[in-house]
Structures are given as C-alpha cells and as structure tokens.
Amino acid sequence: MRTLRFILLIVTIYFFGLSANIVAQHKPDPRGAFIRSMILPGWGHYYVDKENWNRGKVHFGTEAVFIASYAGLLRRASHLEERYVTLASLKAGVQIDHRSRAFRLAIGNYSSLEEYNDFQLRSRNWNRLLEESNENNWNWQNEGDRIRYNQLRTDRDRVQNQLPGILGLMAVNRVVSALSAYHRARSHENLPSVYLMPVIYDRESAGAIAHIEIRF
Questions:
Q1: Would you kindly state where each structural domain of the chain is located, as residue ranges?
Q2: Can you tell me the mean pLDDT for 81-91?
Q3: Model pTM score
C-alpha cells in the first residue's frame, strides 16, 4: 500500500511539473512574430497575444483598406481604358487593344494617319512614319471625340500611376507591423520560467521543489 502511494505521488508530481514547465516555456518567438507580420500585418501581434492584439488589429485593418483601394483603382483604370479603346474603335475607326503606347498617343494627338505622317515628314522623323494600312488608319469624325479620347486616356494613366504608391504604403505597413510584433514578443522573454521537478530522497519519502528562473 505504501509502495502504491509512493508511485502515485511520483506520477502526480511528474505530470504536474511537466505541465507547469510547458506553460512557463510557451513564449512567442520574436522572429516568428516578425515573419508573420511581414506576411500579413497584425498576424504577429495575434501570435504573441491572442487576448490583446489591438495594435495588430490596426495594422490588419490598414492592410484591408490598402487592398480595397488598390483593387478599386485597378478596376477604375481598367474601366477607363475600356472606354477610350471603344471610343477609338467607334469614332476613329481603329482597333488599339494590343497596340503600343506610342500608337495610342499618336491617335490622341492627330486627327488622322495622314495628318500624323505629314507632320513626321515635315519634321524629318523618318523612323516614326507609320505604314498606311487598315490597322494603322484612323480618322476622327470630329474634334470633340478626339479630345474626349485624350481625357479618358489621361485619367486612366493618372489612376494607374497611383498603384505603385499603394503598394509602397502596404510595404511600409508590413515593416512597421513586423517591428512592433517583434518588440512585443521580445518583451515576453523577460517573464519568469517556472520548473517543478520531483526530488526523491529515498524509497520511504519523496518531495518536490520549485525552481524559478528569471531571465532579463
């Protein structure tokens, strides 16, 4: 009977000590927090402390706004491009879906292919002459349509040029979030580590000691 109580005591002490050690040693890895926030802002803060990651929520919300803004601008640019491509097809009689930027600019700056080539000849820009073919031939029905085409194309370029700025802000948000999560994880390293281990003096007696280690 005494042997059974002795075994039960040892088993209880061992498992209690193991549980206490696991809980005490569960400290977030600063590098893991940093990498998580670089992947998704706010994730590192959630990893460090699921109960208190308000700072992470700010970074996460900011990222959501940036993503929505980027998607909205991309959709806006695509819509504007579709409009001026359609306008060129209907009012100038030329398809520019897969044409170069230089060709699209020429259509907006000159009323017809004939006018464009005439200007290049007078300016001695021989390398800029366009072949007189059906795919290159355009002729605006009126000046208002050409002006409208230019306005739509300019608006599209303006919107398109905002996209790199949004990507830059997303990168900054990731870096700031990652550094903050790293710092938060480092602060957890100063928590005390608790170990509970059994100490057996002899077969007739057993005990347990608690070892507390504080790292700074």
A1: 1-27+192-216, 67-182
A2: 96
A3: 0.70
